[in-house]
Amino acid sequence: MTTDKQTLLRVEDLVKHFPIYRGVIRRKVGAVRAVDGVSFEIKQGETLGLVGESGCGKTTTGRTILRLYEPTSGHVYFKGQDLAHLKPEEMRKARKDIQIIFQDPYASLNPRMTVREIIGEPMLAFGIASGKEIDDRVAELLDLVSLDHNYASRYPHEFSGGQRQRIGVARALAMNPSFIVCDEPISALDVSIQAQIVNLLEDLQKELNLTYLFIAHDLSMVRHISDRVAVMYLGIIVEIANRKDVYVNPLHPYTQALLSSIPVADPKFYEEHQRIILEGDVPSPANPPSGCRFRTRCPIADEHCAEVQPVLREITSGHFVACLKVTPIDDQKEVIN
C-alpha cells in the first residue's frame, strides 16, 4: 500500500433520521435516530472497522455516506467534495470512485442477469465501455477475484454463496474505485469461506491501493483486517482508535463488554477471563436515553451521566472515547478534526 496517509474520507456530524408517521393523514410523530451525529475520518489505503450490536446504525452509516440514503444533515468530504450536498448529476459522477459490497450475496445479484451483465452494467451506465471492451474487462475482473472467466455467461443461481460474493466484489471494482464500503461482506457466508473473502479483500487492497470502511459483527475478523476500529452504539460512535489500542486497552465500558464476549479457545485462559454481562435491552433509537446513551446498561453510570451527553475526547494520542468517566491524559480535544 502507498505510504501516503492523506485523509481520503472525512465524515462530520452525519445524521440520518427516519420519520415515523401515524394516522390517516400520515402525521409525523417522531423519528428513528439511526445515525445521530457520527464523525470520523479514513486515510488513503487504510481500513476502518465499524463494529457494534445489530441495530446500532452501522449499515445506515455506510449507506448514508454513499447517499443510498439521503442524509438528514452533516457532511461527507471525499477528495475535497462534500458528497452530502452534491447535486444529483454531480453525485452520479462521484459514484464511479465510491462503491459498496453488500451483505447478502443472494439478494444483491439480479437473478435474471448473467455475470457478464451484472459486472458490465456499471461500465454501460457510465458509457466508458461497450461490446468487446466489456467482455475483456469482465474476464479481467473475474480473474482478479479468482473466478474462471468462462463463468461470465452463467447466472447467479449457479454459484455458491462465496462465489456470489466474489462476483459482488468484481462488480464493485468495475469502475476502479478508490473507496469501498464493505457492508458485512462475510456475515452471510460459511466460516470456512469467510477467511477466503477477507484475504481476497486484503490482497485487492494492496494491489489496487483501495480504502475500506469495513462493517462487521465478527470482532476477531475486524481485528484481523482493520487498521483502526470505531465502536458504535445506538447511532453514535463511543470509541475510535487504532486496532491495538481498542483490543488491548479498551476504555469505554461498552467496548469492554463487547470484547469480553469474544469466545476464548484456551480453557485455562477462559477460567480467568472475566465476562461482562450487560443488563437490560438496547433502548429504542426512536426514544434514546438522555445524556449518555449507554447509561441505562452501564455498570459505572451515575446521575451525572443522565444529564450530560459525552462527546469524543482524545484520551491518549489517536484514542478517542465518549465517556464522562474516562479522564483524558492530555488536554481534551473534542471530536476528530
Query: What is the CATH class designation?
Result: Alpha Beta
What's the SSE pattern?
EEEHEEHEHHHEHEHEEHHHEE
> Helix tally?
10
Straight-line N-to-C gap = 24 Å
Gyration radius, to the nearest Å? 21 Å
User: What is the β-strand count?
Assistant: 12
Label the overall shape. Answer: globular
What would you call the structural class? alpha/beta
Q: Percent range for helical residues?
A: 25-40%
Strand order of the largest sheet: 6-7-8-3-9-10-12-11
Overall mean pLDDT score?
A: 90
Which regions contain 5 or more consecutive residues with pLDDT less than 50? 331-337
CATH architecture: 3-Layer(aba) Sandwich
Task: Compute the number of structural domains.
Answer: 1
DSSP strand (E) fraction? Answer: 15-25%
| Biggest sheet descriptor | 8 strands, mixed
Q: Under CATH, the topology is which?
A: Rossmann fold
